[in-house]
Specification:
Layout: E1 9-12, E2 25-26, E3 29-33, E4 38-39, E5 44-53, E6 56-57, H1 63-72, E7 75-82, E8 90-91, E9 97-102, E10 107-115, E11 123-139, E12 144-160, E13 167-174, E14 176-177, E15 181-190, E16 196-205, E17 209-211, E18 217-223, E19 228-237, E20 244-256, E21 259-272, E22 277-287, E23 290-293, H2 299-304, E24 313-314, E25 356-359, E26 361-371, E27 376-385, E28 390-392, E29 397-401, E30 406-415, E31 420-431, E32 437-439, E33 443-450, E34 455-463, E35 470-479, E36 486-491, E37 497-499, E38 503-506, E39 513-519, E40 526-536, E41 544-554, E42 561-569, E43 575-585, E44 591-600, E45 604-610, E46 623-629, E47 634-643, E48 654-662
Parallel strand pairs: 4-12, 14-21, 22-33
Antiparallel strand pairs: 1-48, 2-6, 3-5, 5-10, 7-9, 7-11, 8-10, 11-12, 13-15, 15-19, 16-18, 16-20, 17-19, 20-21, 22-26, 23-25, 24-25, 26-30, 27-29, 27-31, 28-30, 31-32, 31-33, 34-35, 35-39, 36-38, 36-40, 37-39, 40-41, 42-43, 43-47, 44-46, 44-48, 45-47
């Protein structure tokens, strides 16, 4: 509790004027985007900002000040930081950029690599840029320079709009087998603003896939904006092709005012081989992890205690060490095979935590494996990935599988890898008809790691979250994965923000989810990011985990009181009546020991003391003790009033003053 201080609050007839000494130097910054500032959905481009120091000096001017003017208007050791804006822009290089000393009137350049989501909201957006610098002041009394650290946030504008001409690939389906000719069906959509005229779509691919010259292109004619088309191609797959996805390109050629233009889109063509085993119905769901700065040890135990989730400590830029174990009763794999990790151990909460930790996601791969060869017994399936950041937790037991039979398998993945496509392979270890142990060939497959969480945050709202108080975080969620229910955990990497209620269970996604967040006394008002860990199950897999970023805002701490009403009753000359005052705490700060004082001028006067209560048990003329008032609370005070016998009819002024202690 800080030392008690009294703050007078005057309403109606009394006005307080606060007089302070402002800095002689006023430093502000002007931001502008190089170029037209127009970005398009799907763009992944460098964003260049020009930052200019518009400082001015308004203090006294003499010969000494003239020599120091450059220093006094200098933004010393300027650092800038750009955060991602949910639904608008993802920033790839999120660390601070050091621009150094920036004199007044001199521009500096900062470059950020950003990605615009495919579903980004169109229109003009104001993007916040955080700036930190040191301001120099001259102390004329002591004749020395004073260095003051400053933080500010400036905004710049960008516009997101569709490209004039563009198309997207909605789906690619095929049944390509090594050594055979197959069909490819592609569905495309015109996502540009304009009509694509005289359009022709061509398939361009490389060995081991060869296009059929008679069916490698299709004339589409005019393709209206938003229109979809389905096109088919024929290709031949060479012998020796692997069971994996191969790259290809769709080339859309068209004319704009008679001038030819070409657009390219990469696609993947899945090829399978008729081996002893084949894979089909491959479905995956894996989300990206989150790497966060840990500014205090107290945040880590709550993170590692989430059921089904282990969070290894991470040094910046490093990957988690490989952890492996075997399931109870599972046979040991043959020599030369990679170990299959089945679980990841949590780091003890008493250990010294590094400054950076990665919160992994937990996803799954489901597939159907078919035996195309001889019968097998005692078979196990092992899935591995080339990236060590994707760790497989289990190795399903297949058992007996006869020729022509199929079996559904589910693999659980612990993911530390960033968004993208990753190649993996499956190996089957089995006992053949002669009783010998054999390994199948590698059956390749590809997974895509999503950049979006499974349960999206459509709305994030904070209420009464100010420094030194506990506020409320209200989230509206979109269940895109089809989970029946979910356990939610809110995590903070900021030392000044601590979840008071850190978990929630939800089975109705149409309702809001609420968390209590405590803001420290020393936290700076502004925008921050919390992390929502989502643990849920679907019809295909259990105990899945994805992580979403939660934007929150810490408001500036302020006290503001509002007089709701002032009512009088029984006020007649030479009589005693009443004045009733109703007041409301309309600010966002809790106050203690609030006392309402009423002052009158002739012909009205206070009659003895308060009619309802006194201050701390003792009546005080014209005062009413309210006590504690939370934001939104109202209080009513009633005072006895004497009216002079010579009073005339009319309106008379009153003065109301509220004194309180801040919390």
């Amino acid at each position: 509790m800080r030392a008690a201080r009294f703050f007078p609050f005057i309403i109606l007839t009394t006005l307080f004027v606060l007089i302070g000494f402002a800095s002689a130097t006023q430093i502000s910054f002007h931001l502008s985007v190089v170029g037209d500032g127009i970005l398009h959905p799907g763009d992944e481009v460098p964003l260049t900002l020009i930052i200019q120091n518009d400082a001015r000096y308004d203090g006294p001017f003499n010969e000494n000040i003239s020599d120091m003017l450059t220093m006094l208007t200098l933004a010393k050791n300027l650092r800038v930081e750009l955060d991602s804006v949910y639904g608008v822009m993802e920033v790839r290089n999120v660390d601070e950029q050091v621009l150094g000393d920036l004199p007044s009137g001199v521009p500096a350049r900062a470059v950020f690599f950003v990605k615009i989501p495919e579903d980004a909201r169109e229109g003009e957006h104001s993007i916040p840029l955080k700036l930190k610098y040191t301001r120099v002041e001259y102390d004329p009394i002591h004749g020395k320079l004073i260095y003051i650290d400053e933080r500010t946030t400036e905004y710049f504008k960008i516009s997101i709009k569709k490209k004039d001409y563009d198309f997207s690939v909605l789906s690619v389906s095929s049944d390509l087998i090594a050594g055979k000719e197959g069909m490819i069906k592609v569905k495309i959509k015109n996502v540009g603003l304009n009509t694509i005229e005289d359009a022709m779509l061509l398939l361009n691919c490389t060995p081991p896939i060869q296009p059929n010259p008679k069916a490698m292109s299709a004339f589409l004619g005019d393709l209206q904006s938003g229109e979809e088309r389905t096109i088919r191609f024929k290709v031949y797959v060479m012998d020796g092709a692997l069971n994996q996805t191969y790259p290809a390109n769709l080339m859309l050629s068209f004319k704009v005012h008679g001038r030819p233009l070409v657009l390219f889109k990469p696609i993947g063509l899945e090829v399978r081989t008729e081996d002893h085993f084949s894979l089909k119905n491959i479905e995956t769901f894996v989300c990206t992890p989150k790497t966060v700065r840990i500014s205090q040890m107290s945040g880590m135990p709550s993170m590692t205690s989430i059921p089904g989730l282990s969070i290894p400590g991470m040094l910046s830029g490093s990957f988690p060490s490989s952890l492996s174990s075997t399931h109870s009763g599972m046979p040991t794999m043959p020599s030369g095979m990679p170990s299959i990790p089945s679980s990841l151990s949590s780091i003890p909460s008493t250990a010294s935590m590094p400054s950076v930790a990665t919160i992994p996601s937990r996803g799954y791969v489901t597939l159907t494996i078919t035996n195309n060869g001889e019968d097998v017994n005692d078979a196990y399936a092992f899935l591995s990935f080339e990236s060590p950041s994707i760790q497989v937790e289990n190795s399903p037991y297949i058992g007996e599988l006869k020729r022509g039979e199929s079996k559904d398998l589910t693999f659980y993945l612990r993911n530390f890898a960033p968004p993208g496509d990753y190649m993996g392979y499956l190996i089957v270890r089995y006992i053949n008809q002669l009783g010998d142990e054999e390994l199948s060939k590698k059956l390749y497959l590809s997974i895509h790691i999503e950049s979006k969480p499974a349960i999206k945050i459509t709305k994030s709202e904070t209420r009464n979250l100010v420094p030194g108080m506990t506020g409320e975080l209200v989230l509206n969620l979109d269940n895109t994965i089809g989970a029946s229910e979910a356990n939610l955990y809110i995590l903070s990497s900021e030392s000044g923000l601590k979840p008071v209620s850190s978990s929630a269970f939800i089975n109705d996604f149409s309702k809001d989810v609420r968390f209590r967040i405590s803001a420290g006394e020393d936290i700076v008002a502004g925008f921050y990011t919390l992390y929502l860990v989502e643990r849920f199950s679907t019809e295909k897999a259990k105990d899945l985990v994805s992580i979403a970023e939660v934007p929150i805002k810490v408001e500036v701490k302020s006290a503001y009181f509002e007089v709701i009403s002032i009512e009088s009753s029984d006020l007649y000359p030479d009589s005693t009546g009443y004045i009733t005052v109703k007041i409301k705490n309309s600010g966002n700060m809790e106050v203690q020991n609030a006392v309402l004082e009423l002052e009158l001028s002739p012909p009205l006067s206070i009659a003895g003391g308060s009619a309802i209560g006194g201050m701390i048990g003792q009546s005080q003329p014209g005062t009413y003790f309210i006590g504690k008032m939370n934001p939104g609370d109202t209080a009513i005070a009633k005072f006895r009033i004497e009216v002079d016998k010579d009073a005339g009819e009319g309106m008379f002024p009153v003065k109301i003053q509220l004194e309180y202690r801040d919390s």
